[in-house]
Amino acid sequence: MSGAFQTQLLAGKHAFVTGGTSGINLGIARRLAQAGARLSVLGRNVERGQQAVHVLQEAGTEAAFHQADVREYAAMERALAEAVGRWGRLDILVNGAAGNFPAPALGMSSNGFRAVVDIDLVGTFNSCRAGFQHLQQPGAVVVNVSAPQAYAPAPFQAHVCAAKAGVDMLTRVLAMEWGGAGVRVVAITPGPIAGTEGMQRLAGSAEDAARVVRTVPLGRLGTVEDVAEAVLFLVSPAASFITGAVLVCDGGWSLGGLGHLVPGG
Ligand code: COA
Fold it and tell me: Distance between CA 197 and CA 22 in Å, rounded?
């Protein structure tokens, strides 16, 4: 990354990351911490929260954990108010909390479908809705973590496809409604990322991973750092005229195309 991004680009800022206690979301939180932001991470599991705070402090910043479930609006309001009380401001809100389990539509109950829609979509709405009042200041930005399921239908993923398509559309609507207040709202779509719970659940074996790699034009799985760098760009002044955009960070995976039909393609 260029010199500008190696400086303390986010010094003095406060970033709040839901689901920021593990995986891609912790990677994003760590990158924002390395860029100088103070971090609040929110999740359900206290032990994972404490470990995440340690990782973030090692990245050289102040950090705190908030235990809450994004499905509970009042708890989100409380957590955000507490975090803003601690650091005095809110500049960056990353909505990464998500749930998933592979099951055919007929293999999930109405409650199973609702659990994922509630975490991914309603949880994102709750965080945005509760966070907005704190975000109204120059440079404020919301980043919603989407997924390829938002645009590509996938068997065994009816709940996630429905929820993440909603997240993309929520991103665009909020960008329109909140632009006047100077709040940017964007989304990031990580493709297949090595070592994540999502990859483990959907393509866990070495054979499955190799099959996925063959469909990525850049010829490899992504890394957590690939996604974190893209988020750093989105929250930086370099992206100050970007709002409502859903940035795909997937090595070209989503291009699909008909390359497999063409010899050598
Ligand atoms: N197949 C079918 N249904 C399933 C399921 C599976 N593998 N796993 C959970 N469900 C159903 C449950 O049976 C329940 O429905 P029911 O009440 O009709 O029986 C419903 O989903 C809610 O399950 P519960 O465990 O009570 O909900 P939760 O809120 O604690 O968990 C989930 C949320 C379901 C998303 C859970 O998978 C989870 O917490 N996962 C961890 C986070 C994660 O998925 N991370 C990956 C992100 S990519």
Answer: 9
Q: What is the predicted pLDDT for the residue at 3?
A: 43
> Could you tell which of 101, 159, 167 is best to mutate to test the pocket of ligand 1, judged by most ligand atoms within 8 Å of the CB?
101
Position 78 pLDDT exceeds 70 = yes
Query: Strand (E) positions, 68-224?
Result: 92-95, 141-145, 184-190
Domain limits for position 140: 3-248
Q: Classify residue 258: in a domain, yes or no.
A: no
Q: How far apart are CA 184 and CA 175, in angstroms?
A: 6
Look at ligand 1, atom 8, and give the residue with the nearest C-alpha.
Answer: 101
Does the pLDDT at position 89 exceed 80? yes
Residue 1 scores a pLDDT above 60: no
Question: Does 44 map to a domain?
Answer: yes
- pLDDT tens for 229-248 read 999 999 999 999 999 999 99
Is the CB of 190 inside a 6 Å radius of any atom of ligand 1?
no
Nearest residue by C-alpha to atom 31 in ligand 1: 115
Q: Is the pTM of this model over 0.70?
A: yes
How far apart (Å, rounded) are the C-alpha atoms in residues 242 and 184? 7
CATH of the domain at 63: 3.40.50.720
Mutate which of 48, 106, 108 for ligand 1 pocket (most atoms within 8 A of beta carbon) = 108
Active site amino acids: 146, 164
Q: How many domains does the chain have?
A: 1
Judge whether residue 258 has pLDDT over 90.
no
Residue 161 lies in a domain: yes
